[in-house]
Design a protein that fits this description.
alpha/beta, 258 residues, binds ligand LHQ, single chain, six-stranded mixed sheet, 11 helices
């Protein structure tokens, strides 16, 4: 794949956006490659997905030089319907933990991509730019929803209207970034985190992800019902049995993800 590098090893799928000359902005080929990569990951033994970017940027959103979106006759709604919305749906329903290592600037739909992650690690130099309003567009690819739920509608709204840039420090303060690192620590700590998640009880984590996706909009009573149902399922996993055995044996659990 030209526009993406995918490696799967030690149950970690690492997906690196690879169009550094345009800050890893999305074109049609990258969308197609992303779709293929997600299909390959689902078929593999990967238990965590790491997404990062090659070069100085993470992802600058849509490639604005693509004639399919820059010509006045272009229907941007079609582009979202055919490319971005399926991508965001696929990522936000993926049954694996997703870590985004935001290595540099993320802009437009690149911010949405980062917000699909369960855990965002930022390089100190990285930033998130709500670039949509700078070119007369509206936040898309889930950005208006994901950002509102992440930082609250007041901050999200002001940022979106002003096309604001959030520094890594600000992102950390607002709880968007789980951690900020620089230099070798950025890669090292990200890898450590992925290794931990790759050994975790994957099915239980998938149920946990589903619960938290709903928690953003559900009532407490509905959530209590959902917790009951998912706990019932989690209680039937091999990893639950292993977790309890390991607790009584006073040893580290060896989860197999089933
Ligand atoms: C780029 C891009 C880019 C092409 C940097 N395209 N080349 C969905 C569906 C349909 C339609 C429309 O949109 C969407 C969703 C969206 O994502 S809309 C938002 C699209 N993205 C943007 O508007 C961001 C545009 N980029 C920027 O504002 C800046 O480049 C940022 C703030 C990201 C970074 O600024 P700098 O660090 O100063 O880097 P730079 O501007 O110098 O960029 C480096 C190179 O990358 C440069 O090329 P060059 O040949 O001059 O070195 C840029 O032209 C290129 N590049 N973003 N989206």
């Amino acid at each position: 794949m030209q526009t993406l590098q995918l490696t799967i090893s030690n149950r970690i799928a690492s997906l690196t956006l690879n169009r550094p000359e345009s800050l890893n902005s999305f074109n049609g080929e990258m969308h197609a490659n992303f779709k293929q990569a997600l299909a390959d990951i689902k078929k593999s033994d990967a238990r965590v997905l790491l997404i990062t970017g090659n070069g100085k940027g993470f992802c600058a959103g849509q490639d604005l030089s693509d004639r399919k979106v820059s010509e006045t006759t272009a229907d941007l709604g079609d582009s979202l319907e055919e490319r971005y919305n399926p991508l965001i749906r696929a990522l936000t329903t993926l049954e694996l933990p997703i870590v985004c290592a935001v290595n540099g600037v993320a802009a437009g739909a690149g911010v949405s991509l980062a917000l699909c992650a369960d855990i965002i690690i930022m390089h100190k130099r990285a930033s998130l730019v709500l670039a949509f309003s700078k070119i007369g567009l509206v936040p898309d690819s889930g950005c208006s929803w994901l950002l509102t739920h992440a930082i609250g509608w007041r901050r999200a709204r002001a940022l979106a209207l002003m096309g604001g840039r959030i520094s890594s420090a600000q992102a950390y303060d607002w709880g968007l970034a789980w951690a900020i690192y620089e230099d070798e620590k950025f890669e090292h700590e990200t890898r450590q985190l992925c290794e931990t998640l790759a050994k975790a009880p994957t099915k239980g984590l998938a149920y946990t992800k589903r619960l938290f996706s709903r928690a953003a909009i559900a009532e407490l009573h509905t959530q209590l019902d959902d917790e009951r149902d998912y706990q019932r399922l989690a209680g039937r996993t091999e990893d639950y049995r292993e977790g309890v055995s390991a607790f009584f044996d006073k040893r580290e659990p060896q989860f197999n993800g089933k």
